[in-house]
Amino acid sequence: MTRVWFLPLLLVVVGSAVATALFLDGSPGTAAALLLVFVLLAGVNSPLIFPRSIGALEARRRSAADGRPVVYWRPGCPYCMRLRVRLGRATRQAHWVNIWRDPAGAAAVRAVNDGNETVPTVVVAGQSHTNPDPEWVRDHLFPSA
Fold first, then answer.
1. Start and end of every Glutaredoxin domain (predicted)?
2. For the whole model, what pTM was predicted?
3. How many beta carbons lie within 10 A of that of residue 33, not counting itself?
């Protein structure tokens, strides 16, 4: 649990320290702007921006029932963030599995990526795709459309 919050907390602490130094040097406007940038970066890298993760076994069960993709991800991954942002509101249509919280999810990713925990790994109809194009994933979010 602490590992998923490490980067966001580090960004807030470093941003606060830099902003404090700038404020004390007489640049309150620059300090406020820089602090805002660091807080936004922390928010983007936090687990809050992703839908609630479920376990790998539950994700596979749900995917078998509704045909939606399973997305294996981890906090702090820029490629996962790219996928999340590019999917927009459609993100909630996929089943998200945080491999740092679910050992079965991490094992599933290692099994299809030569032992590496390469994310995002998207599984559609039993076929895994490592770091796929977000538009391709969007096309598979609504299999009946």
1. 70-127
2. 0.70
3. 13
